[in-house]
Design brief:
The chain is of the alpha+beta class. Helix content is 18%, strand content 42%. It has one helix at residues 2-23, and strands at 35-42, 48-55, 61-63, 67-69, 73-76, 82-83, 86-94, 99-106, 114-119. The strands form 2 sheets. Strands 2, 3, 4, 7 and 8 form a 5-stranded antiparallel β-sheet that branches. Keywords: Signal. Residues 1-30 form the signal peptide.
């Protein structure tokens, strides 16, 4: 009887530990998943505002804040990391002439740093 109780207790503790591990995953960092920051280049004479929706380094689907890119320049969407070898939704507008969207594929990166997307 005692052996059966010890097996039940050990099994219950193992299941509890597994559930606890799933409920509280360890801290993730950008290098745990192939992820990059996105740099956006505005090859146009008008100011551009953009935001991104996609999967981050924690495997969560999320949207970013808004950024402005000056005419004929680039801006890094800092503090947001996007999974590489995957697509994101890129939303942008130029000088209040309406929002546009496109799907942007972010290829796999060796260095996990910054990937550049250029618009015209």
């Amino acid at each position: 009887m005692r052996t059966a109780m010890n097996r039940f207790t050990a099994s219950a503790l193992a299941v509890g530990a597994l559930c606890l591990g799933l409920a509280f995953p360890g801290t993730a960092s950008a290098d745990q998943v192939d992820s990059v920051q996105l740099q956006v280049c505005n090859n146009n004479p008008r100011l551009m505002t953009f935001f991104v929706v996609g999967f981050n380094q924690y495997h969560d689907r999320t949207g970013s804040r808004f950024w402005e890119v000056q005419p004929n320049s680039c801006t890094t969407a800092s503090e947001y990391w996007w999974q590489s070898n995957r697509s994101v939704e890129f939303y942008y507008q130029r000088s209040d002439i309406g929002w546009h969207s496109t799907i942007v594929y972010i290829p796999a990166q060796d260095d996990g740093a910054t990937w550049t997307y250029s618009t015209s």
